[in-house]
């Protein structure tokens, strides 16, 4: 059978993966792309922001057999990608036409292996599913968040029908609901679109999530970055759910938009086993300067080695610009971005303090971490909280 496979001209398919230009979305989709490529299927990876494997302008590149297409336009080059609203508008303007042209050119190729046979759309981009559907292609939507969030999104029609929320997502009942058996009850303040400071923003977020859920339920498959045993009953939401996680890079590129600082691994090599506190809050967390200063004070008072990913997105500053860095000496290391899987798998790491992003959770569980901590930063006593939590975890 192997000889027939290698000598035949029958293609194993060509999958187009379209990722939202956010780190927590592109990284797991790149890891999935590597898994698809391993079985002999050709993969084209499309996103609207340059990966570190690509250049900073519109380009095509290749990463271990995966064709990478990064598209940028004048708006994104002139304004910071951190302005999410402008980036979203840019995606809506550019991506549909580019996706349509890419699929049409692919289908006209004389080489069968170049013709795209299926499309995987990141869930925030599921609204583009009609484009490949009209071309007769199978569609899978990738869900990069938790089972509970998926259950909430898919049950929006029932929540409206039961008068738990109105047509704009505003809670009508001050009570908790059970979305799935064995899933913790969800209060109105737990809703993904809960944004009490601005009802217009809350309504906008709700309708985006509602639209995403509508397109997901009509896809051929919903691919989820978790394993079946994590919550088996979630698969009862719809028969199209496929759990394919945890998605790990396993030494291959993780689809990063940031340049990873591998010097932190050399630094970790010099630290005692199970001694280092790893602090990383992802790519979309935002902090005030006071919050950063208080967290830094907690880390310093702790008196234990730590590795902190303090990238410029936290507060529009680079890691090297923090004034307290000079007081850390060799005990602490601050980097802009880190190869997280390698860090979590390093024997010197004792605990992980994170924003609890789903990809980080899957990575930490895969590395054997039983304790996963999320700091709530909208409080006034963060310095004391950081000191107590970090000290207890590092000593435990």
TrEMBL record:
PANTHER family: GLUCOSYL/GLUCURONOSYL TRANSFERASES (PTHR11926), UDP-GLYCOSYLTRANSFERASE 83A1-LIKE (PTHR11926:SF1412). This is UDP-glucuronosyl and UDP-glucosyl transferase. It comes from Handroanthus impetiginosus. Belongs to the UDP-glycosyltransferase family. It holds the Pfam family UDPGT. It comes from the Eukaryota. Keywords: Transferase. GO terms for molecular function: quercetin 3-O-glucosyltransferase activity; quercetin 7-O-glucosyltransferase activity.
